[in-house]
Amino acid sequence: MKRPLHDDATPVGRSRAATWAVRAVVGLATLVSITLVLAVVGFFVVLNSWPDAFDVSPDEPRAQATASATASAAESVTPQTDGLDGSNEAYRERHGSPEGDARAALSIPAVEAALSPLATGEPLRRDAVVAALSAAGFDSFDVTPETTTWGDPATTFGVGVSVPGGCVVGGIAPDGVRLGAGGPIADGGCLEMPTH
Hints:
Blueprint: H1 16-53, H2 62-75, H3 85-88, H4 98-105, H5 108-115, H6 126-135, E1 141-143, E2 157-163, E3 166-173, E4 176-182
Antiparallel strand pairs: 1-2, 2-3, 3-4
């Protein structure tokens, strides 16, 4: 049986304050639900656009995404930073000079000659990259870890070789080597730390 309504449309036995409290709780619950749905949708949009940032399709293996990222790093020796992210990325900035960078660029052919024989189209191993650089006479270099950020075995590697004038940096993938020259990063090495 329905309760009779007063002339102000409030059910008998319920105060206006209680009615507004119920409306506020229902409104807040609706707002939270909408926010949650938008957050989930946003997460999946970002997740699906992540491969686009590395020019790979979602169906390609993660190792190829790492290869694309390594190749992108080799093409742009000095990372671009915008806005507030620039202050967080300062450790990546290369500190060199035009003269030093030009001097470091003279070592690119030697590093490329050491690494090119490994680019046979077959998956690479980190120890082979390290051995090739050591055999070529480089004593100060960095090679990215043998596992990807996902924990899978890496088959492409970033390299940073300390040379007169600065660094030769880039990457090696099964299909080739891409290198550039520049000064060391603010952290002091040629490659950023693996945890970055």
